[in-house]
Amino acid sequence: MKRYLVLFLVLMTAGHAFADNTVISDEFTSIGFWGGPKIGLTMIDGQFGMLVGSEWLVTVNRNLALGGTGWNLVTNVDTRDAIEDYSHLKLYYGGFVIRYIAGTENATHMTAGLMLGGGSFSFRNEIFGSDDQDYKRSDALYIVEPNVSLELNITRFFRVNLLGSYRLALDVDFEPYEMKDISGPTMGMFFKFGYDFQKSDLEKIEELWEE
Which of 35, 44, 117, 147 has a CB 3.0–4.6 Å from the CB of 56, allowing a cystine? Predict the structure, then answer.
C-alpha cells in the first residue's frame, strides 16, 4: 500500500519536477485544519443517486492535505428484479484521503487526491425506517477513489470545491451485482471551513501562552 501512495504522489507532482517548490518542503511554513459537508450526484448500476458526506483535513505548508472522508447514499436507487422484497440499494463508504493542492495562494486553483477505504453495500425498503426495512446481509467493499477539484477561496476561512471523482468498488460479491455496477463517477461540492496557521501565527500564539 505504501508503494502505491508514493507512486501516486510522484505522478501528481511530475509536472513540478524542475521547480523549486515541492509537495513536502524541507521548511515548515504552516499547518491548517479544514473540514465540512459535501454533496454529490453519482451513478450506481446505471442510475442517478445523491450522496451526502463530510471531509476533515490537516494541511501542511498549504499544499499537502491528509485526513478522512465519507459518503452515504440518501436517495432511492432501484434494485434489480432478482432482488425480492427489497426495492432500493443501500451504500455508504469512506476512508483515508491524501490530496495535493496546487497554487493555494490563488483565488482559484486545482487539487488532486486519492481516497483509500471501504464501505458496505446492501438493500433496503425505506431511507428512514425500522431495522426490519434493511436487508439482513451486507457486502463489505474496498474502495479506491481518485478525485480532482476546482477550489475557490471565498474568504480566509471558507472555500468551495467543485469536485469530480471515480469510485472503484473492489471485491463486490453480492449477486447479481458486480464491481462495474457499484463503481461510478461522482460530481459534487465540498464546503470547506477552516484556517491555515502560518509560522508567524504559531509564534504569536506561543508568545501569548508564555505571557
Answer: 35
Other C-beta atoms closer than 10 Å to the C-beta of 169 total 25
Map out the domains of the chain as residue ranges. Answer: 2-16+31-210
Cell of 63: 499544499
Give the distance from CA 116 to its chain's centroid.
9
Rg (CA), the chain: 20
Q: Whole-angstrom Cα distance, residue 46 to residue 184?
A: 9
φ and ψ at residue 3, rounded to 5 degrees: -60, -40
Phi/psi at 179 (5° precision):
-55, -45
Short-list 139, 102, 133, 103, CA closest to 120: 139
Beta-strand pair 108-124/47-60 = unpaired
Q: Is 0.70 surpassed by the pTM of this model?
A: yes
pLDDT tens by residue, 126-171: 665 555 566 666 778 899 999 999 999 999 999 999 999 999 999 8
Categorize the per-residue pLDDT at 21 as very low, low, confident or very high, splitting at 50, 70 and 90.
low
Cβ atoms of 32 and 58 within 8 Å: the answer is yes
